[in-house]
Each structure stands twice: as C-alpha cells, then as structure tokens.
Design a protein that fits this description.
The complex is a heterodimer.
Chain A: E1 2-4, H1 5-14, E2 20-21, H2 81-86, H3 92-96, H4 100-118, E3 152-153, E4 177-178, E5 194-202, E6 207-216, H5 219-232
Parallel strand pairs in A: 1-6
Antiparallel strand pairs in A: 2-4, 5-6
Chain B: H1 2-18, H2 31-41, E1 58-62, E2 68-71, E3 80-83, E4 88-89, E5 118-122
Parallel strand pairs in B: 1-5
Antiparallel strand pairs in B: 2-3
Classes of the chains: A alpha+beta, B alpha+beta.
C-alpha cells in the first residue's frame, strides 16, 4: 500500500474520510469514546462503551450462591462470584454430570471465570451469557474499536495541555468534530517518510490482521515543489 | 570469466543491500527518544505566552524526526538552539485547557520568539 502524500493532502482537504457530526443534532453514540479518555488502561466503571465484561447480568446477583445446576449450568450466572466459585465449581456442573476436567479445572474457573469477575478491561469478552449454552461455551464476539483516538502533550509540568486533533486548536462543540476513522490515513503519519505496520489481534490472539503502509514522497516532484515554494514563489 | 561473473554478482548484491530505502532515524536503541521523554516530563511544552488569534499557547506540530528548534532574541549571541523534546502521546494528561487570561500576552515590543505563543511539539511516531 503506497500512499502519495500529496494525494492524501488533497483527500484530507476534501474530507472524504472525515465525516462531520454536529453534536447539537446527534444523540451520543455509544461507540464514540470521548476524546479525553485513554481506553487502553484499566477503567473502573461502565463509562466506556465497548466495555463488554461489565454487566451482562444473569439471574443471580454477583457474589451469591445460586442454585446448583439450575441456572448456572445454563450459563446464567457467569457474572461475578457465581461463576467464579459457587456455581460451576463443583455444584452446578458436577452435580449435573458435566465433565469435571474441562469445565472446572481449565475452561471456566481458571481463565474465564476470573476475567469475568474483574470485568473492567476494554475488550474483555470472557463471559458465557446465553441461556441454553453450557458454562464453558464461548460466545461469538466482536470488537468495539475506537472511532477516533486523540493525542495529547505529555509531561508533569504543564499548566495546560494541547490535544493534537484538530490542529491547531479544537473547535467549539456546536461546530462539530472531525473523526479520522482509519488510522493509516491520520494526518500526522504524512509528516515524514516512513513505513508503518498496524496490527490487530483478535480471536484471543489466534488471529492477527496486519496492514503495512509505506509513506512515500516522490523525489522529483518533491524537489520541484521545494524549488517552487522556497525559491520561485514570491513571499507574500 | 568466472572471476568476472563473481565480481558482477558481488556488485549486484552490494547494490541491493545499499539501496534499500530506510526511513529509520539514526537512533537505533532509542536513547535520544528516552532522553527527550525524560526532559519533556520536567518541562512544560509551552512558554506561558498565548498566541494572539487563539488566546492560548498553541502547539505547532512538527514531524517526529525533527530535532532542534531555534529561538531568536535581542542582543548578541541570542541565537539559540534547543532540542525538540516534547512529543504528542496517547495519555490524556491533565489539566486540559485553561481559561483565557491565564497566560501572558505578546508584548508590544516582542523581544523573543517564544513570546509569540506558538511552540513546536513533535507528532507521535
């Protein structure tokens, strides 16, 4: 994938890849992460959209011991304490005659149950929520990627901080915001010639999507442009 | 003849290895990057002057491969160069923007290029 820098500037100028949204007209969409939020750190509440591990209920409150075999074997108690120690660890599953090794030792309690208990990582999809499934079944999952992701000035001594998009300063909220939803097309990648790789792991690490981008400026046209802009053009 | 062919092969192999385009900076172990991060953590990215059209210090994004900035001021030997330490990153650090009026205005007679309120910040890698 070879991208011409000048072509990209033209594309950005025409804002083909930058849908505008007027915040006065549009209700907040769940998938848009607020621009002052860093989503690859541990978050506490359910303030993030895309936090799949937080609350998918079940028929029992978290921490309580639910009836052995009745609800837990159906996967209803996969949230909180129920799947972690009470239900599928010997009471529900073994009582109903499910196999002991796969359910209790490895599948549910060792990995899935603990992650379901924490339940606060973005993209944490370990749960077993559908009625009718057994407790060790993994549902079909899909990610909720960020629509847009901003950059900020760093350091401990700043009395104010700047965000990088939109440059030079952000616009008022009633004007709207520009989201660049495809990371290889973000404008700061066009600042210098380089190669970059964008990775996306999915399916628990079993799959990886890989995009390699060459950011390239044609030397002859770049030289001609430099001659024009630095020597021939009248300064005004 | 064999020596001739071998020499041609050697030249071709050398050309293939030399002409490989590389945009990697001359910082193989990222030591300069580490120094920049350490220095930037202890210094503000701006100089307490606001940029007149926007009322706040304004970051001017430069490529992450840029190294140095130059400041000009009155007097002899006031033509100074500093490394460009600050770089945009992923952490949403606090505080955010301050209210207008929190920074100094450009003097009527500016004596330094920092007083115009535009400051370089390198873009992320």
């Amino acid at each position: 994938m070879r991208i011409n820098r000048f072509l990209f500037v033209t594309m950005v100028a025409s804002s083909v890849f930058s849908p505008f949204a007027r915040s006065t007209d549009v209700e907040p969409v769940d998938h848009i992460v607020s621009s002052n939020v860093v989503s690859d750190v541990i978050v506490s509440g359910d303030s993030y959209s895309g936090d799949m591990g937080s609350s998918d209920g079940g028929s029992c409150p978290a921490g309580s011991a639910c009836a052995a075999g009745s609800a837990c074997a159906n996967g209803m108690c996969s949230n909180g304490m129920c799947s972690n120690g009470m239900c599928s660890n010997g009471l529900g599953q073994n009582g109903l005659g499910q196999n002991g090794l796969g359910q209790n030792g490895l599948g549910q309690n060792g990995i899935g149950g603990l992650r379901g208990t924490l339940g606060s990582y973005i993209g944490d999809l370990a749960r077993c929520g559908h009625a009718g499934d057994m407790a060790s079944c993994q549902p079909r999952t899909y990610g909720y990627p960020d629509l847009f992701y901003n950059y900020y000035t760093q350091g401990n001594c700043n009395s104010t901080n700047a965000q990088m998009y939109i440059s030079p300063i952000p616009v008022p909220p009633n004007v709207g915001h520009t989201y660049i939803t495809y990371q290889p097309f973000m404008a700061h990648e066009m600042l210098y010639q380089h190669k970059d790789r964008f990775h996306n792991y999915y399916d628990g690490g079993r799959g990886m999507n890989h995009t390699k981008v060459h950011y390239f400026a044609p030397p002859v046209r770049t030289a001609a442009s430099n001659v024009y802009w630095n020597y021939l053009r009248l300064p005004r | 003849m064999k020596r001739y062919i071998l020499s041609i092969l050697a030249v071709v192999a050398m050309a293939m290895t030399v002409s490989t385009p590389s945009a990697q900076g001359a910082d193989p172990y990222a030591r300069t990057q580490l120094w920049s991060n350490q220095v930037a953590a202890q210094r503000p990215w701006h100089g307490n002057y606001y940029y007149l059209p926007y009322g706040q210090p304004t970051a001017l994004i430069v490529p992450p491969t840029a190294h140095m900035r130059q400041t000009l001021s009155w007097g002899v030997s006031q033509n100074l160069m500093y490394p460009l330490n600050h770089q945009f990153g992923r952490n949403a650090s606090s505080p955010g923007a301050l209210a207008p009026g929190s920074f100094q205005a450009t003097p009527h007679w500016p004596s330094h290029t920092d007083q115009f309120g535009v400051y370089y910040v390198r873009g992320p890698w």
